Amino acid sequence: MGYEHDIFISYSRIGATSEWLDKHLVPMLQERLDLELGRNSSVFFDKDLCPGGTWPIDLGRRLGRSRILLALWSKPFLNSAWCAREVAIMRAREESLNLRTPQNPNGTIAISVIHDGETMPRELGMIQRFEIKEYYNTRMTRESTLAEALYDRISDEAVSLAQMIEAVPPFQEEWPIEAADIFYDAYFQQDRVRQTAPPRFST
Predict the structure, then answer these.
(1) Residue 127 is part of which domain span?
(2) pLDDT tens, 73-105?
(3) What would the mean pLDDT of 178-191 be, rounded to a whole number?
(4) Which of 9, 51, 76, 173 has the most crowded Cβ, counting Cβ within 10 A?
(5) Strand, helix or coil for residue 88
(6) Is 199 domain-assigned?
(7) How many domains does the chain have?
(8) What Rg do the C-alpha atoms of the chain give, in angstroms?
(9) How many CA atoms lie within 13 A of 158 on its CB side?
């Protein structure tokens, strides 16, 4: 099957962030990526998990079949074991492919700061990031000046994101299998009651 998604969005599911993604960020990002890539783009976030599926396996497969990961960085981001795991899997992919080296500076992780970018660990600090925290307002409307400003910002960043997407290495069949195994094992290793609903991605 190869790649299925251009971008996998990783985020800490605090408050109404999921609704903000669904109403604002994802539609804007897809529209601009369609233009930059010259084709229909695919942006995945956890709202798109299939009802009745086995979500840790589905989530891992989706990540494994994504070209790049976009981390929406906030102070609680690494408090979420799932966010940390998603980034760790993509960093492992980068390392296995010798990415982010002087010989090949390309990567498969992009970071957009929606709150407090000062808490980022050193390893991720080398990744050039873009800030949209002034546009992160879960109460804004689609017709607001704030939404217009976010659209302009996403339009600018879509150029670089499209370049990242087009530069990814060829797909490897083991990626979705390995990610699904990691997520499945992690789910059953948690010291809490098993969930029957999609993940909250925060602790």
Answers:
(1) 5-189
(2) 998 898 899 999 999 999 999 999 999 999 999
(3) 88
(4) 9
(5) helix
(6) no
(7) 1
(8) 16
(9) 22
Whole-prediction pTM: 0.90
Q: With bands split at pLDDT 50, 70 and 90, how would you rate the model's confidence at 190?
A: low
What is the three-class DSSP state of 73? strand
CATH number (domain holding residue 173): 3.40.50.10140
With respect to residue 203, please indicate whether it lies within any of the assigned structural domains.
no
Cα torsion through 93, 95, 42, 157, rounded to 10: 160
- Beta strands per DSSP E along the chain: 5-11, 43-44, 66-73, 109-113, 129-131
Please answer whether residues 101 and 119 qualify as being in contact, where contact means their C-beta atoms are separated by less than 8 angstroms: no
Residue 56 in this model has a pLDDT that exceeds 60: yes
Q: How far apart (Å, rounded) are the C-alpha atoms in residues 44 and 69?
A: 10
SS (H, E, C) 140-186: CCCCCHHHHHHHHHHHHHHHHHHHHHHCCCCCCCHHHHHHHHHHHHH
Would you say 5 and 44 are in contact if contact means Cβ atoms under 8 Å apart?
A: yes
Classify 200 as helix, strand or coil. Answer: coil
* Percent above pLDDT 70 for the chain: 93
- Per DSSP, the three-state class of 110 is strand
